[in-house]
Amino acid sequence: MKNIISINAHKALVIPVVLGFMWQYGNWSTEAFIYLSIHGTYSLLWLVKEATYPDRRFDEQQPLWIGTLFIFLPLAGYYVAPYLLISRHLHLPPYLIGLVLFLFTSGIFLHYVGDAQKYYTLKLKKGLIEEGLFSRTRNPNYLGEILIYTAFALMSLHWLPFLILGGWVFGFFVRNMLKKDHSLSRYPQFTEYKKRTGMLFPRLF
Fold it and tell me: How many CB atoms within 10 Å of residue 3?
């Protein structure tokens, strides 16, 4: 089974899971619907992305039990934020909702535009991508994904979703970013490119 199947299964279940929490706890608040909207939108866009410009890194074949145990179940940790929000009937201050929507929208832009730029640029020519979103950061797509999940975690008003996000950032994202840098170091222009870009956050000066 390809790794992407486990990932897509997680994304496809987000809307039913969040709706299930809302029904179970009788919570049809504005906050619950905002969460359903933003996490549901992110997940639907992910499925569209994988159908139109997929990431080939996730094509690796794994036994079903490995995909379930080491991909799907860890990803299910992201269901904790909506559970904490909805089960506790939280009401968020307007400034926090504004911050959540800012982080989410910025993250969606960086994540999906970055992935699209990488996919279609590499179809035309192999090598370093030094323009567009990649001109100041080497990983705009990872930055976007971190912003998205930070927005989800903020809505829970709890430390646990941030701990889960930290586990993914340092256990998966950072490892992949370092591996990518090592792979790109074979290009002669990488040394100069690395000096003017941040690994994650844009280098502005």
Answer: 19
Beta bridge partner(s), residue 2: 61
HSE value, Cβ hemisphere, 13 Å, CA-based, for 105: 7
Diameter of the chain by CA atoms? 59
The token pair at 75 is 């990803």
What lies within 8 Å, CB to CB, of 175 at 6+ separation is: none
Q: How many domains does the chain have?
A: 1
107's CB contacts (< 8 A; 6+ apart) are 143, 144, 145, 146, 147, 148, 149, 150, 151
Share of the chain above pLDDT 90, in %: 80
Q: Is residue 204 part of a domain?
A: no
Global confidence as pTM: 0.94
Give residue 157's domain range.
Answer: 3-195
Please tell me the distance from the alpha carbon of residue 186 to that of residue 33, in angstroms, as a whole number: 47
> Residue 32, Cβ neighbours under 10 Å: how many?
21
* Pair of tokens at residue 157: 């008003």
Assess if residue 26 is contained within a domain. Answer: yes
Query: pLDDT confidence of 62, banded at 50, 70, 90?
Result: low
Closest residue by Cα to residue 91 from 156, 1, 26:
156
**Mean pLDDT for the chain overall:** 92
**Where does the pLDDT of residue 66 fall: very low under 50, low under 70, confident under 90, or very high at 90 and above?**
low
Per residue in 116-134, pLDDT (tens digit) is 999 999 999 999 999 999 9
